[in-house]
Amino acid sequence: MTLARLEAFIAVVEEGTVSAAGRRLYLSQPAVSQTVNTLERQLGVQLLLRSNTGVRTTAAGMALLSEARAILTRHDQLVRTVMAAAVDSSGVIRLGIPDELPAGLLRAVARFATDHPGMRVIPRHLPMTAQLDNLRRGNLDVSLMREHPAGNEFDTMLVARENLGILLAGELAAKLSGPDGIRLNSLAGLRWIGLPRSGSPAWYDELAATLRSHGIDTGNHTDGETFVIPSVTLTALSAGQAFAFASQEWSQPLPETVVWRRLADYPVVRRTWAVWPAESRNRDVAQLIAAFDWCPTDPA
C-alpha cells in the first residue's frame, strides 16, 4: 500500500470524481481508477460507492481516509526533518538518466521543477558504469539506474517497476497474439533488438537469460542487435523478423506497421532505482528523492 495509492484515494474522495482527481494528480482517469480498485482488492472491502455523478465513501472508506491523511501528514513531517538535516544546497541537481525513463518518473521530475522554480535539474544521459564513476567523482548528485549497485557506497530507493511488453510488426503480432497477449516462447526464431550491454550490464544479462530460458537465441554478439536510434529500431521491426522490449508508454510515435503488445504472464519486469552517495548531505537531492514514489521491493 504505497503513498501514491493513498494519495490517489484521498484525491478521489476530496475531488468527488475520478476524472477531477486525475487532473489534480496529473494522471489519466483509468490510472486513478485502477489505483483505487487495487486498494479495494488489497483490503478486501469496498471503499467507494460509484455513480454517474461521482463517488461517495463507504464506512470503510471513511476509516481509510482518516488514516491515509495521518500517514501522509507524518510522511511530510519526515521529509521536512530529513531535509533540515541536509546542509548543502546549490540550487542545481546533476541527474544521471538511463536510455528511457518511465512516464511516472518524468512526471515526478516535472512536478519537482514546477514546485521548486529556483532549482535547476541538469540531466546527463550516461551508461551505468559512467554514472557510478561520476557519482564517485562528485560530477553527478543522483542517478536513475536499471540495476541496484552493490555494496554500501550508495543509498538507493526503488522508484519504478514496469511490466514490459514488446514492439513488433503488426502482421506478425496478429499471428502470435492470444487472448492474454503474446507468449515469450512464441518469439523463438526472431531477432532480439536490445540496447547496448554497457548501458546496464546486469539488466541486459537478466533480459538475455529470460529470453534463453524461453528458447530464444540471443546471438553470439556482446550487445545483441543494438540500435540506439529509434527510427532505425522501428525500421528493423517493420521488416517482421525482430522484436524489442518496451513499456506500454513508449515515448516514440509508432509507424502503422509496428504495434505494442503485452506479454502473457508479464515475464519481464524492468526496475529503476534512484542512487546517490551514502555520505551525501545535499538538501536539493533530498527534495528530489522525496518527489519520487517509493515502490515495495517485492513485485506487486
TrEMBL record:
InterPro entries: LysR_HTH_N (IPR000847), LysR_subst-bd (IPR005119), WH-like_DNA-bd_sf (IPR036388), WH_DNA-bd_sf (IPR036390). PROSITE patterns: HTH_LYSR. One of its GO terms (molecular function) is DNA binding. Keywords: Activator, DNA-binding, Transcription, Transcription regulation. One of its GO terms (cellular component) is protein-DNA complex. Pfam families: HTH_1, LysR_substrate. Residues 1-58 form the HTH lysR-type domain. Belongs to the LysR transcriptional regulatory family. Required for the induction the katG gene for catalase. Involved in the response to hydrogen peroxide. This is Probable hydrogen peroxide-inducible genes activator.
